[in-house]
From TrEMBL:
Gene3D superfamilies membership: Ribonuclease H1, N-terminal domain
Coiled-coil segments on the chain, per record: none
Protein's name according to its UniProt entry: Unplaced genomic scaffold K443scaffold_615, whole genome shotgun sequence
Domain Ribonuclease H1 N-terminal positions: 1-45
InterPro entries linked: Ribosomal_bL9/RNase_H1_N, RNase_H1_N, RNase_H1_N_sf
Highest taxon in the source lineage: Eukaryota
Pfam families reported for this sequence: Cauli_VI
């Protein structure tokens, strides 16, 4: 399964267990995510959303220490 995070602490297409992706959206106001069966479907959805400026990184204090610099948070 592939997960797309459009609004979260880190955004992009992720191929991991849900337990690893969930923290990227937990406690994020307006978080948006969706799962897909194939990488192509997920990537197309993500790139379309990015083109439409629907992708946004939202950080809480201290998140940079956990998820890395915000400048690298968007794929």
């Amino acid at each position: 399964k592939y997960y797309v995070v459009l609004v979260g602490k880190k955004t992009g297409v992720f191929w991991e267990e849900w337990v690893n992706v969930e923290p990227l959206i937990k406690k994020v106001s307006g978080a948006r995510h969706k799962s897909f069966r194939t990488h192509d479907e997920a990537l197309t959805f993500y790139l379309d959303a990015k083109t439409q400026s629907k992708v946004r990184v939202v950080r809480n204090p201290g998140d940079d220490c956990i998820y890395g610099p915000i400048s690298q948070a968007m794929q």
